[in-house]
Amino acid sequence: MTALGSLLQGAVPFAVRLHREFRGVTVREGMLIQGPSGWGEFSPFEDYDDQAAGRWLGGAIEAAYGTWPDAKRSEIRVNAILPAVLPQVARELAEQAAVRDGCTTIKVKITGDDAADEARVAAVREALDSVLGYGVGLIRIDANACWTSEQAISSLKRLAAYGLEYVEQPVASREDLRSVRAAVDVPIAVDESIRTDRGGDPRALSELAEIADIAIIKPYPVGGVQRAIDVAELVKLPVVVSSSMDSSVGICASLALAAALDVDRACGLGTGALLATDVVSRPLVPTAGVMRVQRLAPDADALAEARQLLAPERVQHWHERISRAWEAGSSEAWRKVITSSG
Ligand SMILES: [Mg+2]
After folding, report:
1. How many A from CA of 2 to the centre of ligand 1?
2. CATH class of 75-292
3. What is the pTM of this model?
4. If we measure between CA atoms, which residue out of 166, 101, 110 comes closest to residue 140?
5. Hey, what CATH topology would domain 3-68+300-341 get?
6. For the chain, what are the domain ranges?
7. Positive or negative, the Cα torsion across 107, 109, 113, 119?
8. pLDDT confidence of 124, banded at 50, 70, 90?
9. Distance 279 CA to ligand 1 centre (A)
């Protein structure tokens, strides 16, 4: 059997439902890949090209066939994440995150609609202050580069009144990041810049320290846990590890990364609360604000249901996608890893 053949033999396409729309989708799809080391997740977003999907596949192959670095700790402090919801819902979700899940840091999505964004951030601040005490809870916002630099500067000056830990990717380009950072006091975190801007070339990564204060690093999109550690070394910025709206099986790679790095801030791994269904029967969600470092395998029943959620043409789509990602990625190196494991 070819190496790609053995990879596909251990691959199960799946879909999980979200409680509400996030990043434009209500269903998260991908493939879980089983190998001798455990399960990995291949779930590049639809707008990722074959090359970007190839990096993701590298992360999935590492999880299934390779090794993750040793953990320096057994628990990771995490933030809760709040989609672009109405203020009343934002208030309820923020209270729930703080009281039920013990998360004192909340990441709020920003859409560029100034009034709605401010109302959402204000509602979260009010909720956190009321349950935790004045100014105790931390709010970080993620604009996913939806602002122009002028909008970013005026919005951040307004939103800073609610107390912001940092803003994630206010604008897309390095020039714009530089001008926004010069004009506002809110610390700037880069997320998309790490992957899309010159594709993670080492020189480009090392220059990020000139235009940002914090680096958001997600293992699968950069090519796996080991590659993410290399990225963290190159950027020389404080790191916040995040997941990519992964299933509970996928989140384990982010837990492994956060456990291997020296991370002080809450990590963006509390995304399990956004999932209405999962590939495990007991989804990975924070307790008392932390998540335990662990490796999960899918549960047979949950995986069968997740497999059922996918229409036949989507199953076909994922088989084609993984084959294209294989061709676009480091297929020669992967072939060796996979054949030597058999
Ligand atoms: Mg982000």
Report:
1. 37
2. alpha beta
3. 0.96
4. 166
5. Enolase-like; domain 1 (3.30.390)
6. 3-68+300-341, 75-292
7. negative
8. very high
9. 24
